[in-house]
Design brief:
This protein has helices spanning 6-32, 37-72, 87-139. The chain is mainly alpha-helical.
Length: 147
Amino acid sequence: MSSRDPGRDRGMELGGDLKGDLDAAVQTRKELGAAYEDELVESFLEKVEQRIDATVEKRLRRQLAEQQMVIARGGRAGQPEESRGPGPAFGLAALSLVLAIPLSAIAAAQAELAGLLVCWGGIVGVNLSYAWGRLRRADSPPSSDWD
């Protein structure tokens, strides 16, 4: 009988899949040369994006199910920020940093400093607009229970 967590095994398996895909892309790059480098990078990034999308979708479904359970039990869906853990702001920041690495490399390779500045301007812009939206929602008065 194994004491391993099946959810953890699945996460390790998916991580192994990406590692295998990266190894295959590197080997293909070695065989084909630099001519196909852009296509190989795009293909790998697409796989990473699909993995991130699947993970985010899974977390959103879990969070929605938890909120529905709270509502079904007669509680309120809007819990205090402290009780929810890191939350979506941390997720967006982590995702931005993860994607910033390959995006920066591609932007710098294609358009040098100008491309890098545009890339990081976009990353910073997305994070600032998210933070600004959260501040606006926090400043708005809460809805009344009488509505």
